[in-house]
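for the writeup, i need someone to sanity check this before i put it in the appendix. the sequnce is what the collaborator sent (i think, or maybe the updated version? ugh). structure was predicted straight from it, no edits. if anything looks off just tell me and ill rerun, i have time this weekend
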Amino acid sequence: MAEPRELLRFAVVGLAAYGVTLLGDYSLKLTVLSEKPVTALFLATVTSTAFAYLLSRRWSFAGRGGHRRLREAALFFVVNAGAVAVNLVPALVSRYALHLSVPHVSHLAQEVADFVAGMVLGTLSGTAVRWYGYRRWVFPKAAPSAPPGGVPQNGEPVAERLAGPRAGTVLEMP
C-alpha cells in the first residue's frame, strides 16, 4: 500500500507542475507565441515535466530506489508521454465519438464537455497512470538493506547500490 505522505507529495508536485504548465502556456500564448498556441503548450508541458521530475526525485519519491539518473529521467518522460496519451482519450471520445462539438451542440455545451472530458476525466486518468508508472518503473521500491550484523532478517541476499563512479552497480551480499 502507498505511504500517505508519498501520495500527498505526489499530489503537491502534480499541482505545482500543472501550475507551471498553465503559467507557461498562457505566458507564451499571450506574448511571443500568440500565433502558435500548440507550440506554446508543447514548451510549457516539456518545462513542467522537467520541473516535476526534479521535485519527484528530490522530494516525492526521495525514499525510493531508482535507476541511474539518465535512465530514470528517460523512464519518467516515457511514463509522462503515456499519461498524456491516456489524458487525451476522454477528449477525443467526447469530440469525435460522441460529437459533443459545434454544430452538433451549442458552443457552451462544447466547452463544458471539453472541460469535463479533458480537464477532469483526462487529468484523473493521466494522474493514475503517472502514479502507477512512477512507483512501478521510474522510482521502484528500494531493496531491503542488511541490518548492522550484515545478515538480512529473512535470510535472503540483499542487493546494495554502490556510490561513486560505478553507482548503480548491484552487489549480492550473503
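The beta strands are 158-161, 170-173. Residues 160-164, 169-174 have pLDDT under 50 and may be disordered.
thx in advance!!
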